């Protein structure tokens, strides 16, 4: 997924770009992208500390999916521009709802129990007997029918804009990146 943040260039910054030339402009853009990358990574880590609705509901431990996503945030050079890449399929939810379908299996396995959360059905099946009843994978635990997974042909996850900083925060982050480069340059010539 590529995130694009466009920052309106003030007349003063446009003049500075003109004075600095292409190399200077590239340095400023690199500074903005570096700051954006760091701020997005920090935001995703923070979100990863609080988004545990399903794990909490099932009495399970979080999978750390968002923490892994935070480590995938990196700056990419795109010719005469820069971008920020997040290599995590769930981040498409920032821009709209996402429908997930099974790729190889016949159905998605949606965890219904703490034993199943964050684990593949095949992994759980190594430790307990699992059987299918209609659209449920379950186990017989101590004589009690215990649903483990719901089987679904598709699941639609709602949009979640909170996975990334707000547009205003992204713009402020880019501006801070520009200013950090300018301050570094000014400090070097004093």
Task: Describe this entry's structure for a reader.
- There is one protein chain.
- The chain is an alpha+beta fold and 190 residues long.
- It is built from five helices and nine strands.
- The strands form three sheets. Strands 5-8-7-6 form a four-stranded antiparallel β-sheet, with no helix packed on it. Strands 1-3-2 form a three-stranded antiparallel β-sheet, covered by helices on one side.
- Strand 7 and strand 8 form a beta hairpin.
- Helix 1 (11-50) packs antiparallel against helix 3 and helix 1 (11-50) crosses helix 5.
- The two termini are 41 Å apart.
- The mean pLDDT is 88.
Main sheet strand line-up: 5-8-7-6
Instruction: Determine the fraction of residues in helical runs and give it as a percent range.
Output: 40-55%
Query: What structural class should be given to the helix and strand makeup?
Result: alpha+beta
Total count of strands: 9
Low-confidence segments, given as residue ranges, are none
Write down the overall geometry: elongated
The overall average pLDDT, rounded, is 88
First-last Cα distance: 41 Å
Query: What fraction of the residues are assigned to beta strands by DSSP?
Result: 15-25%
Major beta sheet summary: 4 strands, antiparallel
Tell me the number of helical segments per DSSP (H or I, 4 or more residues long).
5
Give helix and strand order, one letter per element, not per position: EHHHEEEEHEEEEH
Radius of gyration: 23 Å
